[in-house]
Fold:
Amino acid sequence: MALPTETETLMFREAAESASVIAAQFARNREVVQALAAELRQNPPPFIVTCARGSSGHAATYGKYLFETQLGLVTASASPSVGSVYEAPLQVRGALYIVVSQSGKSPDLLRNAEAAKAAGARVVALVNVEDSPLAQLADTVIPLGAGTERSVAATKSYLASLAAFLQLGAYWKNDPALIAALDQLPAALSQAWECDWSAVTDGLADAHNLFVLGRGPGLAAAQEAALKFKETCGLHAEGYSSAEVKHGPMALVGKDFPVLAFALPDETGAGTRAVAEEFAARGAKVWQAGEGGALPVAAAPHPLCAPLLIVQSFYRAINALALRRGNNPDLPPHLNKVTETV
Structure:
């Protein structure tokens, strides 16, 4: 079967919708999120727990850094198997328990949400399918509003998940600068979609493996990018913190080893750039997005918006790369759109 052209793939079309999806999401969810944020300010939870898998798990990484840096609340990632396979009760009374899921019906996530609710946690669902079992059992639902996503590779639903965390964090902190950035984000996403990352498409056409680096909220972008390399391109990639990569993995980085680095416009940016420069000095093939990098990035209205903008530019490039490597990004081998794990 002939491959579609770059603009004919479902992945391309769905990722291109992200700006309009998030604009509508922010408008629709504003009152629900404001009400939840007001309650959380009045009765702060002792800690936050996230529960998710795959791309949704990467979105939860973003939520962790957002909540910990902006609110000072420890945010832990729950291992779904603890509740679903081991059936071990957790002490989460009073905690905010956020479950992130596109389908809202994966058995392991549902079991953990049920257990958390029974243990006295407040369960919030970030979910795309609004009549799903997860939405029905949650105390509060923040709909992603991404609409139908037919490509196996999640794009607009992933960015909508990050946007949901961002909107909740902005109103919870009640930060005027962050709230104002919400209004500017959709336009910035449109600009990000037009950024030319063809250097990545050209440079990785024959690659066999690579590292993707980020730090802080940018780690979520690196994790998501590494997953997309695997599922859409059949290209082995690992996402690392630009600090963690120095604890062993960097031994693999030598001449011609490919590295994609995401340097954010925040306190982590300088460190990520330094690692990218160190690898380039060894002869590695380095592509960097962010200050000082060759890959163009859209101006972020707030540093916490930068990971969304980087990922949006990346999605267009990875769609083109998959086709360049002879793969249909909409139909990765052995994968289904909805993965139901226990």
Notes: The mean pLDDT is 94.
